[in-house]
Each structure stands twice: as C-alpha cells, then as structure tokens.
Amino acid sequence: MAELTPKERMAIERHPMPEQRPEDRVKNFDEVPLGFADENAKREAARCLDCKTPQCVEGCPVRIDIPAFIKLIEKGDFDASAKKLRETNFLPAICGRVCPQDQQCELVCIIGKRGKPVAIGSLERFASDYERDNGLRKVPEVAASTGKKVAVVGSGPAGMTAAYEIRKRGHDVTVFEAFHRGGGVLVYGIPRFRLPLAVIDEDINFLEQMGVKFMYNTIVGKSMSLDDLMGPEWGFDSIFVGTGAGLPKMTGVPGENLNGVYSANEYLTRVYLMGANNFPDNVTPLYQGKKVGIIGAGNTAMDAARTAKRLGADVTVYYRRSEEEAPARTEELHHAKEEFITFKFLSNPTEFVGDDNFFIRQIKCDVMELGEADDSGRRRPQPTGESFVDDCDTAIMALGCDVNPIIPTSNPEIEVNKWGVVVANPETGATSKKGVFAGGDLITGGSTVIQAMGQAKVAAAALHEYVMSNGNAFGYWQD
C-alpha cells in the first residue's frame, strides 16, 4: 500500500478490534479483544502517514519508533515489525494490551486531529503476538560477564525491565519477589480477560533464559535488608528497587471493617494470584454475595466490577463525581457498560450497614452535585442533602493505592516525600541510599506500565555506569 497518497490513507477508517460478545464474555475469563487478522492489521497500518516529525514517538515514554514498526506491518513483514518494537520495548505484548494509548501515543497522532488516531496499541499487540504465535522470538544477546552482581527487588513491569536492561549489559542479576510467582501487579492486579497469564510468563521465561535468577517468597525489608544484600553474605554491588504502590486506600466511613468489605487490591489478588475463583480446587477462599458495590471509577474499579460480574454478581459502581471526571480509560468504561455493570455517578458512600453477624447488608450514599474545580482541575463534588440506601452484600474499595512502605520504613536513610513516595533523581533513578536505584510506582506513587518501564531503563543505564566505576561514578553519593 506504499503507493497510497496521504489523502487516501486518511480516508481509511480505523479498524475496530474484534471482541467476544458481552453475553458470552461475562461467563468466562478469556481475553475480551481477539486481536487483528493479518489483512486487518495491514489495513490499519496503512492509515499511518509516516510523519516527518512523529508526535507519537514523543508521546511514548520509552520512545518506540512507532512509524517504523507500523510500516513494517503494512509491508507484511510482521517478524521485522516485532524486532523493531523490541529494540526499545522488552514488553510489547503487555504494553499493547494495558497501556493507556489514548492518553499517550494515540493522543498526539496527527490523524487523530481530524478523525480517529491510528490504533497503535492494537498494532503493537498484533506484531508481538505474531512473533510469539509463530515461535520467532529469540533470546536477547547478553554481553560478556562483568563480574558484577545486581539485585532487583520486585518483579513487576519496572523490575522486569530493569532485570532485562541490566542483564543485557553482562551483570549477574537476581530478582527478589515477595509472592510465589513473577509479574507483580501484572499478575495480581490485572484480570486475565485483559492480560492473559501466558503473555506475562513468556517474558519471565525469557529473562530466565537470559540468565536472570528469581528468588520467590522473599520479602526484602523483612527476610533480609538492603544492607544485607550489599554485605559480604550476598555480595551485590548495587540494587534496583521496583516494589510499586500496593498499599490500598480506604474510605474511612463507618462499617468499613464488616465482613464482605474488601480493598480492590485484596479482592483481585485473591482471584488472580491465588485462584480463589476456583475454590476449593485452590485453597484460597473468596466470600462474594449477589449484590456487589464497587467504590471508585478508575481502571482498577472497572477490573473489580467486571471480575465480580464474571463471578455471578449484580454489580453497581458508585462514584462521587460525574462520568466525565471518571479516571478509568474510555475503553474500560465502555467494556464495563457493555457487560451490564450499573453506574451510579454522583453517589458518595457514607456508611456500610451490617447484620447481627457483622456481614455487610446495605450501603448508604449521599447524592452529590459538582461545584467549582478543585486542585486536581476536576469539579469538586458536594452533597445535595439527598441520600439513598441500596442492598449490598459485598463492597470493594477501588480508591487507589499508596507506595509499598516496606523498603522505605526498613531503610530510613531512603528519602521519601510527604506522601511516602521514594525520592529518586529523575535523570538516574538514584535514591538517597548509596548504591540503590529505584523506578516505577515506588517513585511516582502510581503510574502506567510503560512509564515504569521508561524509568527502569534510565535507572538501569545509570546503575551500569555506577557498578562499572566500582561505585565512584558521578559523585552521586559522598562516603
């Protein structure tokens, strides 16, 4: 299609990703989007104008050469397209599924100014899936051994990326993970209908094939300290920490401690990490009633709502602002509505009411209206004086998370800000503790997969320079 004029390319309509029907998918945990067929991918790729100054690249935190990989799809060279992606992105199959492209690369796509942007995320997924499905992925080349040992704490997107970038440079890398399997928030926080386990496992397996070692069921900060890791027993020359933001926020309203009230973090972890949806085949139980209330309207709220629906509940989402202020991706809200989730916007829970056995039975809410904009730029919700009560036998709080506090509290010399977020040099990822670098939600308080990856790449490059100078590079830290 190289002969197409820009006008002809812009006339091609965006190709929608085929999906499972809502009536079918609420009965299973299989992935909802089904992926492009070859010809559909080539047709969608033909919409790219191959701009001289591609804004999409600027909109990507890891600077993927987006026009280059898309043009290779248009030419039908899908394997080369996947290889082009992997030059800058170790996790394209994951990013193609969970990145908020509508807020990053696709937001600034030139075609999007006159119509719908090129489906960059869907094409990224297509190329990486083609590579995996056809057994074309090769184990990355690793540089000759440097004799240096590096510990990576946490195996989420930041930890996986750091391990890849550091191992690629020839260092001996060990990843420490608190849970019994790798992937971090990708495993315990994102439902299988959005991100299949096989996609995550493929990347973990490739790290292992590169020589990265994993030590599971080990909580650094409890099982051993950072100083232990850099001491004579373990002998690590440097540490990258990517332990994320996994401390749930709660509402603080009466009844919050009743049976049947969960944080979204606990609820999703029980289902997706511990397999509670298959109890008693798996030993972790999950109490869930027939009427489930979700508090919040972000992506995690949509994940919890859609999971509860698949487990047979009648689900209502309560959010104190309007739909326009909801922080969830447009696609996630759309999918939730398709799956028969009820939304009660401008509703603020004020109490959970229990029975004599301390199980939740009702939820009380204030009816809200929007006032002037607050510091976040969104209109401030305020009570109207009206209220209502709904039956509810399970409530799930999806109000965001704070930084995992184990590393900061066990290492008081690591500087944190007033919200407990670790302070790191944005150009190096260096923390205030010598030899310790950090990236991901630990230094942002909560961000996207690809932003965590970008920070991990920056920190890995600086960490490499640090260890190769035997701890003397840059004068980061004074002895």
Number of strands: 15
How much strand? 15-25%
Mean pLDDT metric: 93
Q: Trace the largest sheet across and list its strands.
A: 3-2-1-4-15
CATH architecture of the largest domain: 3-Layer(bba) Sandwich
Notes on the protein architecture:
The protein has 479 residues and is of the alpha/beta class. The chain folds into 3 domains: 6-134, Fumarate Reductase Iron-sulfur Protein, Chain B, domain 2; 149-246 and 403-469, FAD/NAD(P)-binding domain (3-Layer(bba) Sandwich); 256-401, 3-Layer(bba) Sandwich (FAD/NAD(P)-binding domain). 32% of the residues lie in helices and 17% in strands. It is built from 18 helices and 15 strands. It has helices spanning 6-11, 22-25, 38-45, 55-58, 66-74, 78-86, 92-98, 120-133, 157-168, 185-188, 197-209, 226-229, 264-273, 299-310, 330-338, 406-410, 441-444, 449-468; strands at residues 149-153, 172-176, 213-215, 238-241, 247-248, 261-263, 291-295, 314-319, 342-345, 347-354, 360-373, 379-391, 394-397, 401-402, 436-438. It has a 5-stranded parallel beta sheet with strand order 3-2-1-4-15, covered by helices on one side. A hairpin with a 5-residue loop joins strand 10 and strand 11 (360-373). The chain is globular. The N and C termini lie far apart (61 Å). The model has no long low-confidence stretch (mean pLDDT 93).
